[in-house]
Amino acid sequence: xxxxxxxxxxxxxxxxxxxxxxxxxxxxxxxxxxxxxxxxxxxxxxxxxxxxxxxxxxxxxxxxxxxxxxxxxxxxxxxxxxxxxxxxxxxxxxxxxxxxxxxxxxxxxxxxxxxxxxxxxxxxxxxxxxxxxxxxxxxxxxxxxxxxxxxxxxxxxxxxxxxxxxxxxxxxxxxxxxxxxxxxxxxxxxxxxxxxxxxxxxxxxxxxxxxxxxxxxxxxxxxxxxxxxxxxxxxxxxxxxxxxxxxxxxxxxxxxxxxxxxxxxxxxxxxxxxxxxxxxxxxxxxxxxxxxxxxxxxxxxxxxxxxxxxxxxxxxxxxxxxxxxxxxxxxxxxxxxxxxxxxxxxxxxxxxxxxxxxxxxxxxxxxxxxx
Amino acid sequence: xxxxxxxxxxxxxxxxxxxxxxxxxxxxxxxxxxxxxxxxxxxxxxxxxxxxxxxxxxxxxxxxxxxxxxxxxxxxxxxxxxxxxxxxxxxxxxxxxxxxxxxxxxxxxxxxxxxxxxxxxxxxxxxxxxxxxxxxxxxxxxxxxxxxxxxxxxxxxxxxxxxxxxxxxxxxxxxxxxxxxxxxxxxxxxxxxxxxxxxxxxxxxxxxxxxxxxxxxxxxxxxxxxxxxxxxxxxxxxxxxxxxxxxxxxxxxxxxxxxxxxxxxxxxxxxxxxxxxxxxxxxxxxxxxxxxxxxxxxxxxxxxxxxxxxxxxxxxxxxxxxxxxxxxxxxxxxxxxxxxxxxxxxxxxxxxxxxxxxxxxxxxxxxxxxx
Amino acid sequence: xxxxxxxxxxxxxxxxxxxxxxxxxxxxxxxxxxxxxxxxxxxxxxxxxxxxxxxxxxxxxxxxxxxxxxxxxxxxxxxxxxxxxxxxxxxxxxxxxxxxxxxxxxxxxxxxxxxxxxxxxxxxxxxxxxxxxxxxxxxxxxxxxxxxxxxxxxxxxxxxxxxxxxxxxxxxxxxxxxxxxxxxxxxxxxxxxxxxxxxxxxxxxxxxxxxxxxxxxxxxxxxxxxxxxxxxxxxxxxxxxxxxxxxxxxxxxxxxxxxxxxxxxxxxxxxxxxxxxxxxxxxxxxxxxxxxxxxxxxxxxxxxxxxxxxxxxxxxxxxxxxxxxxxxxxxxxxxxxxxxxxxxxxxxxxxxxxxxxxxxxxxxxxxxxxx
Amino acid sequence: xxxxxxxxxxxxxxxxxxxxxxxxxxxxxxxxxxxxxxxxxxxxxxxxxxxxxxxxxxxxxxxxxxxxxxxxxxxxxxxxxxxxxxxxxxxxxxxxxxxxxxxxxxxxxxxxxxxxxxxxxxxxxxxxxxxxxxxxxxxxxxxxxxxxxxxxxxxxxxxxxxxxxxxxxxxxxxxxxxxxxxxxxxxxxxxxxxxxxxxxxxxxxxxxxxxxxxxxxxxxxxxxxxxxxxxxxxxxxxxxxxxxxxxxxxxxxxxxxxxxxxxxxxxxxxxxxxxxxxxxxxxxxxxxxxxxxxxxxxxxxxxxxxxxxxxxxxxxxxxxxxxxxxxxxxxxxxxxxxxxxxxxxxxxxxxxxxxxxxxxxxxxxxxxxxx
Lengths: 371, 371, 371, 371
Description:
- The structure is a homotetramer.
- By secondary structure, chain A is α+β, with helices and mostly antiparallel strands.
- Chain A contains eight helices and 17 strands.
- The first copy, chain A, has a single domain, classed as Chorismate synthase, AroC fold.
- In chain A, the strands form six sheets. A five-stranded antiparallel beta sheet of chain A has the order 1-2-3-7-4, with helices on one face. In chain A, strands 8-9-15-10 form a four-stranded antiparallel beta sheet. In chain A, strands 5-6 form a two-stranded antiparallel ribbon.
- The first copy, chain A, is globular.
- The two termini of chain A are 42 Å apart.
- Chains in contact: A-B, A-C, A-D, B-C, B-D, C-D.
- Chain A binds chain D through residues 7-8, 28-34, 73-74, 76-77, 143, 146, 227, 356-357, 359-367, and chain D through 7-8, 28-34, 73-74, 76-77, 143, 146, 227, 356-357, 359-367.
């Protein structure tokens, strides 16, 4: 079962890159959620390939909602949306299944399916599947907004090195939302422009670059999540690592924490306007798998796009010998930019899951007077 | 549902640090697995606190197997093992629930449970729960060994900075197994000794340090995992982030990949002794969420132990004011060393899950002659 | 999460009666299953309303497979099929939401969704949803046929009383398959003809009738299922009770067993052609939740169709007063006949689930020489 | 995965009849539920074998709560309780694995496990496992009572034929609770006494009898459940069929409905004291898989106890030949009486699951003014 997740809010993704359509079913959504369809479409379009640094494949990406929504309000029944596939060039993939592309899912997918998987355009393994994923994320985001939760991501760094720094204790959400209008969404426009140029350079060299997307969620109440397997990090990482090309996930100080000492890492508590806060946020809003009420800070590291037009060493599976391959399909030289709303979707779907779980297990009674 | 995971092999952890017992139920284990009980106990003991750099709490950690094993062979029914709690000092925790410890689960756990959670010794949030986790991991490891899969981890780095480097293409498994006999398990003994001294220094300063554990799995066939939500990274990260104190997870080049270009990241394929291999392993044995047959390389970043004896700023929840706290419980100045078998367990449980899934979905027919 | 089932083979149904389409996603299907599309379509058509005893709504019921099948072979990725809705008369439902129909889901659905559910044509609660269900069942059936498992159902009884009896120890499968060509599928044609006349009589009286469908599965190996929650009866009943209008499920002697004594109920074992068999089959092929290798005998009791054109007592939800209602939509006077392939689908999906589970947990080693 | 159930409230049963202990873990229980331990123990004791019509095996059946409860209040963490096994006679089972008992799980369990299952005292397949099941049910019942839901069952009929009739529209709950004090719990004491005598007669003949348990749940709000796979009937049947020896499950008129006409089956709505009710309850409180607010009526048919002391025909698996068997273990001549609290537990666990689901998916907004 490759493409379903969620104990509370089931997300079932389906479709292949060159098949009839890709789509998603959300089951477990409460009834009575009024969807802002313009906002949802605008969110989906943030993922679309529209600029010089994106793939040449152009798709309308219009959702057809088949079920679960009536007069723009969720019915409480399964919500299915599909997106038709249009601009496909299957002939570009005639090197498959013989010569698997380095860095792609081709070889393990052939081994898994014993040759039965449809790998045209990478099939179900394609980044095209992040389209229904983002649709689902957009719905989850609107659900969370009814609770005052807001989510925004930016490109934190790219191969070139500079970091787009934000305040983890009190992030400027407006600046984050604003940056989504730019070609490379960074809070500091200069950094984004440098990144843009860097991606164009990589493209010119028939190469690709990786990068890091950082996502912030504010307004999340304390006490979501659980110790162990449904800890926020565990659940969120499951969604984040499902995004093709993600090879690392961290929260708050993350890997940097491994090089810190306790006195410098622990976030001290303080009262502020009658509310418990921490005066720094190395924990990324998460302690013991639970939300503290502070902003959640999650980062995902993306490897460089595997499809590059340079000649690469591979094997011929039929000939059982070494050979080479030049890939001529249309690909993004850097998936990181288009991945920004995908990362937001992962965070939104994880939080929707945990928020619904919280509704289910909300305590029967208080134990302490002062809570 | 805080403490259960697994679609194929259900792992249900239970217990509190100062309750009667901690334990685990494994459901979904095939019948007929002959358990080497000595080996299993030895594995569990690797996690125990036995040296000067570990907590003063001393427990026998003997598993009582209640069900699912008959004459050392699995019956195919739920396997439950419990470990009694002995050496507990609940009075050390009388600052709770009023003054939550910075960096601990106390505050969010109080908010989640509205004061009903048992937080003595950190309760269900305690590192003590990694004991049944390791038991479960040890069983999973013996299951995987019947397929030729072997798993070993080491301390890759500590706060102090030096890295214990291993070969990702052809790791020396014997050296890894050998290093588990040392106080700090590093392949290079000198690095481990420096780390040991470093931890003692932190302890002397009433402080703590973090670090990174790296785990290798070899002998894993190509084709395990799936795109998206049951991708190997997604599943494994779920288990890894469930380990208390883990704040980052990466595979292969991981976060470093974000700073690479495609031509340098993609692992070229080659034929070697009639088998498809890659000549480097930046992918950590994982492409598109699927295993390639190369060694799996997973790393988990541990934050410094939250419990330190220095005075820290916190709040009084009853007084709704700022205050300070000095914690006097017994704690590890660095959990990284004892976490090595816990990380191995996470990797083993994830691979057992995926291997059982592979059995279930093994293709009905081959499509290609040459597979 | 209303409409998903399956730990091994996930079945996600979606759609509303008067929405754009109804459909299903199967996730967890092994790759390499060659689908006989003609056979699959013929199976789906067995459910269609085609005779004088069926609803006047006429739909083409052509599946559009969006994903998961390539050149008629399953890829191992999610298989989604949709069926467009055509012949809908939403205006027939303008008594809703004010005056709920007795015997229908209207009232509880309004209460569940606080008025947000789309109840036109009964919405997601409609028998129309058994269309994708049957598609899924047809795929499961073809999967099971690769293992030699065959499934067939018949109308065992109707309101009028006569019972269509089959041999539980050695059922005549050819006769069962043959009977599916008749208007009312009974092994004894005379009983079916009497039933047909009986349904027409009920229709003439603006009334409806219930009945019992009995399903047989042969070729099922011994040892599928599990004690307790994944017992064959537990799992199969979950699928069977999901069929709208089913109010009772029993296996083998079923409720009759409650009036038997042990010596008469227990099925004695005997060796036959080197195989362990039972000489009668009161257990319906199921002991302790596990298959014995004997034919599985499952029965589902269907209540009479709730929609009848006679005036019935109901309430006005807005007026908070008693009132009456005459329903003028198009409905089957007896769903039992069209339900026969739906029951077969439930049995097939349950067995596919259990057979995949069996693959996953197949024992690592044999314990006894003589097995 | 044989012995776990529940998407919202996970119930994991473990243990074997002649192993160290049997037990259960409940995960997903809200924090802050004050448990009445005396009431819980009294409920568990209702299942115990205490009279002349019960097995000779005598067990104390005292729960040891290992986790998840602190000062009698649930913590929100996994609740594990175990019951030690004491009075076991494993030598009574030395006919196994060679000569499987007719009507028992022996043969399919051997086939499933390839001989690895521990079948002493029927192992994990034993009715002994209903002990932790009843403990879990008792906890669920106390959870539901905080919402005003009350559950009670009685013996509806036994082999001998007379039926203990209750009012489905307005059941006398006090009479049902009262009847639990009698040896055979029937509302009509005379029927229970006749049943008692009947069981003694069967015992004297070395035989056994079956029967039907009927369970009522009142106070359940309208709108619990869902169409299809999480319909109340589907979910509840899953729990009910998990009880060993259950071979049929029905709701309301159940199988009788199959012989009714629509006008006689449909329950008319009426307003009563400002509340929507039905004037009869053929639906058993369930329409379209959803609760209507009327009493839920569920019935489970139990086959006669398989273990009888008469000589029965079986096979020798080693000799591959026919043979006979006389079973000398201690067994109940009729499990129906002790099954009454087990059926109540199944209903309670199913309703707890659905009630928690309802909390999670409670609508975001109302659509209609008049709801």
